Amino acid sequence: MPEGDTVWRTARQLDRALSGAPLARCDLRVPKLATVDLTGREVLETVARGKHLLTRFEGGLTLHSHLRMDGAWRVYAPGRRWSGGPGHQIRAVLATAAQSAVGYRLPVLELLRTADEGRAVGHLGPDLLGPDWDEAKALSRLLSDPARPVAEALLDQRNLAGIGNVYAAELCFLGRVTPWLPVGEVPSPGRLTALAKKLLEVNKARTLRVTTGDVRAGRNLWVYGRAGKPCPRCGTAVRTWVPGPSTAQRVAYWCPGCQTGPPPPL
Questions:
Q1: Closest C-alpha to 109, from 69, 62, 177, 162
Q2: Reported confidence tier of residue 126, pLDDT bands at 50, 70, 90
Q3: Which of 31, 41, 108, 152 qualifies as a cystine partner to 66, CB 3.0-4.6 A?
């Protein structure tokens, strides 16, 4: 699932491509929106809210989309071949005279009254890249269930919005704790929320996500995706854990040499 910085960049791309112009074409290819036509309405803006995308139109309407694991929006100039996937995977086409935004494999696509956006995103915690960011509120929500594993608490969008698997793994490494340490036992938990904000901010404008400070591909992350490879800090082999079907937790990466705390559940 894309991280919050990826969704932020997608929102910015859509905003630049569509905002300030009326739609010349609207094609929403999901059954519940099959008869909806927004052609002629001006696109006001596209904003990110955590991992959600909100495209707002004149007349008080918002198209809400979520990429989840496989979704993507692509922007094309007139005459350029649409290359984001086969045609049957297209779920939305929003086009002005100058640009076309094509949504592929979107698992969530719904039309809301702009005044009712809270139905889709009102449950989210403070957005790490949004104007509503409130570190104290995010930390309070993160610690509301002290027994919860720290990675699971970080991934809960109701606590703070924008963290996915990559950042959860990297934050646990930087905090020197395993993903399964109860969040209430994390030393200086406020450091995690501050680091989360810092990392998403520095990465939101670049496609290669960097948490190590080294912008070279393959050296840009501490543990995520590095199973079996030496830890860049101590040389211990990075380990991975794949949860069983009965758990809501996700794939985890950690360095046994650098991170202390409980091992993964059996």
A1: 62
A2: very high
A3: 108
* Secondary structure (DSSP) of 9-74: HHHHHHHHHHTTSB-SEEEE-SGGGTT---TTPBEEEEEEETTEEEEEETTTEEEEEE-TTT-EEE
Non-local CB neighbours of 2 within 8 Å, separated by 6+ positions? 10, 51, 67, 164
Rounded-to-5 percentages of helix, strand, coil across the chain: 25, 25, 50
CATH number of 4-121: 3.20.190.10
Please state the domain extents for the chain: 4-121, 135-254
Tell me the per-residue pLDDT of 128-152, one tens digit each, with 9 for 90 and over: 999 999 999 999 999 999 999 999 9
Structure pTM? 0.95
Work out whether strand 90-95 and strand 100-104 pair parallel, antiparallel, or are unpaired: antiparallel
Structure tokens at 117: 């956006």
* 3-class SS of residue 90: strand
Look up residue 41 and give its two tokens: 């309405």
pLDDT at res. 250: 81
In 122-266, which ranges are continuous DSSP H helix?
135-142, 150-155, 165-174, 189-203
Residues with catalytic roles: 2-3, 51, 250
Q: Locate tokens 């101590």: which residue? A: 234
**Across the strands, what pairs with 108?**
66
The CATH class that applies to domain 135-254 reads mainly alpha
